[in-house]
């Protein structure tokens, strides 16, 4: 019996290792291609190790496009979206999980139903709304929808809040605390792991977002990093070496955030009952 279990564990680890290598392959190809000249990238058979290493691709990519401005744009947009999402989603999750009001369950189901609507369906109506209120070619068109309409974050946090014992709320009420005080002093400290997981997911989504900036932004000085990388691709040709170098640079903040908070991601997802 033990031998059979060990065989299953070994096979499971082999499959996970193969899957990890398959997912790591595109990133490895990107990093290696960022150190090649254009003649080495598409050579057949593939040349994995650059010969020579073209380190000049990195400063050249930073000089070819206004990357510093794009980084600043992506950074402050992402920080605002993450902060606003954590506040709004946690407040909504607390209301749906602990506050009983007429139609709360129906409203929550309708709120979750928005997750089933494809983004392509809402692109044109949302574009018309942004045009009507004058937010086209501004960062508000990226910040407000991304920060205030995250049904997945509300759902994830609600599952966590529902697991908090009601005795803690009752004790706070006996001490004279209202809804706001309970939310701030009782709920928020206890949902910290889930907030960390939601913060990481939101950060990754906002930092890597390409479609929304492509739709709403026209001025190069307002571009985010993913949108600016697209400028390396011309009508008839593309500077793949500089694009790969710029892409590698753009991945660095994501890797740093993940390395710092990977424990919180796993803990938050596990404690909310959502398992892959």
From TrEMBL:
Keyword Transit peptide: no
GO cellular component, one term: plasma membrane
GO biological process terms on file: transmembrane transport
PROSITE patterns: ABC_TM1 (PS50928)
Principal localisation: membrane
Entry-linked CDD domains: TM_PBP2 (cd06261)
Family: Belongs to the binding-protein-dependent transport system permease family.
Protein name: Sugar ABC transporter permease
Species of provenance: Paenibacillus terrae
């Amino acid at each position: 019996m033990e031998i059979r279990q060990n065989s299953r564990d070994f096979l499971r680890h082999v499959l996970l290792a193969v899957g990890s290598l398959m997912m790591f392959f595109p990133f490895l190809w990107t990093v290696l291609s960022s150190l090649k000249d254009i003649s080495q990238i598409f050579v057949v058979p593939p040349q994995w190790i650059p010969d020579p290493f073209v380190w000049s691709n990195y400063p050249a990519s930073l000089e070819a496009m206004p990357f510093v401005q794009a980084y600043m744009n992506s950074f402050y947009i992402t920080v605002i979206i993450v902060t606003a999402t954590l506040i709004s989603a946690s407040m909504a999750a607390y209301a749906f999980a602990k506050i009983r009001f007429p139609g709360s369950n129906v409203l929550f189901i309708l709120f979750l139903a928005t997750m089933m609507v494809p983004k392509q369906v809402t692109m044109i109506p949302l574009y018309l709304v942004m045009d009507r209120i004058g937010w086209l070619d501004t960062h508000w068109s990226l910040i407000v929808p991304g920060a205030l309409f995250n049904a997945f974050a509300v759902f994830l946090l609600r599952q966590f809040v529902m697991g908090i014992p009601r005795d803690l709320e009752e004790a706070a009420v006996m001490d004279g605390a209202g809804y706001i005080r309970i939310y701030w002093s009782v709920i928020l400290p206890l949902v910290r792991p889930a907030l960390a997981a939601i913060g990481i997911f939101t950060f990754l989504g906002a930092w890597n977002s390409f479609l929304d900036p492509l739709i709403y932004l026209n001025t190069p000085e307002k571009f985010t990093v993913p949108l600016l990388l697209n400028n390396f691709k011309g009508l008839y040709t593309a500077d793949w070496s500089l694009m790969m170098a710029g892409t590698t640079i753009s991945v660095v903040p994501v890797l740093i955030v993940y390395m710092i908070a990977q424990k919180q991601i796993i803990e938050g997802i596990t404690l909310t009952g959502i398992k892959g």
